[in-house]
Flavin-dependent monooxygenase
Amino acid sequence: MVGGGPGGLTFARVLHRHGYPVSVLERDPSPDARPPGGTLDLHQGLGQLALEKAGLLAEFQTLSRPEGQAMRILDTAGTVLRDWRPRPDDLANPEIDRGQLRDLLLGSVDVRWGQSVTGVEPGDRGGGAVVRFADGHEETFDLVVGADGAWSRVRAAVSPTIPHYTGITVVETSLDDVDTRHPELARLIGDGSVAVYGVNRSIVAQRNSGGHVKVYARFRAPLDWHTGLSPDLADADPDAIRSSLLALFDGWAAPVLDLLRHGASFAHRPLYVLPVDHTWPPVPGVTLLGDAAHLMPPLGAGANLAMLEGAELAEAIVETGADADAADTTTSLEDLDKAVRAFEQRMWARAGKWAKITTAGLERLVSSDPTEALAQFEEVQS
């Protein structure tokens, strides 16, 4: 498994549960090498089902935040248009911090940290696939699964397709200790998220655990929109970024703009996608899952799909060796290849549907007509 994100770790955890050996190759030098990201809502029929297959659903339910499903929508003047709150027993899409989910999935999984993969050479019917590493060495595996994200190094082994820019970019910032330092913003956000939609732009703030809030300014812009600030936005002066964003959202309600004013640092996250119908011809010894296979707009489906795909692929591998003793899990590569091909067909069908849904959803959420975003929310809730 190349990639130690939710999909890769779920794959490894399910195989580990059934006594099958698997190595996770992760380029990060350690679990805490960089911030794990924001919060995820895990759907009952997707991410939660994957955790059930991994034997982790009960632990997830202890860690998750069902109240985080709450959603408040405002107009740019600050008027509340919708204030949706889940029922106490609503467990359809509870939230969990990415870091908590990672630690839950890690368990005793064998992760080889600091292993940067540069490419994969497909195998043939007589052998596995060769993985090339940044330090120059190579290793051969029966099966290499690329779950290494949008800019996957494994993808080139099966497909020449690369992600393309959607025309929509996101600038992310954070607020810490919001309940004590910014109680007025805590009330604005509520227990879950608050979203404000304008013409071709939006601001969304989402609670994480521990009083931490992620804020996302989303807008249509050319990919190089920030060059006046800095060739690389990561090197730009935070005050300059803040001023640019406040100008972009000029005229919006002061409490909404405070979500940007109080952000200490900013990250540039342009939105890329793969074609909704992305597939590839059979390649022995190599496959993909998650964003590596079907990168789509970040509207709640990506991690859920990756986790379920990881669990399903692991189960498919287990089924090919159902009669094997746990201490001798050798399976013929031909049987393994057939199981992978069948998995890919199921993955493509489901991911294609979600890619169409999320692509259309992004267009409505960042639209010239802000009422489209409200209509999108109403349809999802119904």
Summary: The domain at 164-273 is CATH 3.30.9.30 (D-Amino Acid Oxidase; Chain A, domain 2). The first helix runs from residue 6 to 17. The chain has twelve helices and 16 strands. Residues 323-329 have pLDDT under 50 and may be disordered.
